[in-house]
Design a protein that fits this description.
Blueprint: H1 2-18, H2 33-55, H3 61-73, H4 78-86
Length: about 100
C-alpha cells in the first residue's frame, strides 16, 4: 500500500510540473495540497512579473530592463538612487 501511494505521488508530481493551472490537475492528484500550492505559487510568480512590468511603464526599454533586474536582485535602480540623493527633506528622515 505504501509503495502504491508513493508511486501515485510521484506520478502526480510529474503531472503537476507540466500543467499550468490547478484545474488541469487530475482529480486523484488534488488530494495532495502541497502540489496545489506549488501550482498556485507558480501562477502567482507569473502575475507578479506582469505587475512589475506595469510599474515601469513610463520608462524606456533599457531603463525598464535595468530597473526590473535591479529589483529582482534586491538592488536600487538608478532612478531610485537619484531620487534618494536629491530628496529635500529633513536630514533625520533621509535613508542614506
Amino acid at each position: 500500500m505504501m509503495d502504491e501511494s508513493s508511486h501515485d505521488r510521484k506520478w502526480c508530481e510529474s503531472i503537476a510540473n507540466k500543467v499550468n493551472r490547478a484545474a488541469e490537475l487530475p482529480v486523484e492528484c488534488r488530494s495532495f495540497t502541497n502540489l496545489l500550492a506549488n501550482i498556485q505559487r507558480r501562477d502567482s510568480k507569473n502575475d507578479t512579473k506582469a505587475e512589475m512590468a506595469k510599474a515601469f511603464e513610463g520608462m524606456s526599454a533599457g531603463e525598464m530592463e535595468a530597473a526590473m533586474s535591479a529589483r529582482k536582485h534586491g538592488h536600487l535602480n538608478p532612478a531610485q538612487i537619484q531620487r534618494r540623493m536629491t530628496h529635500r527633506g529633513k536630514k533625520d528622515n533621509r535613508i542614506w
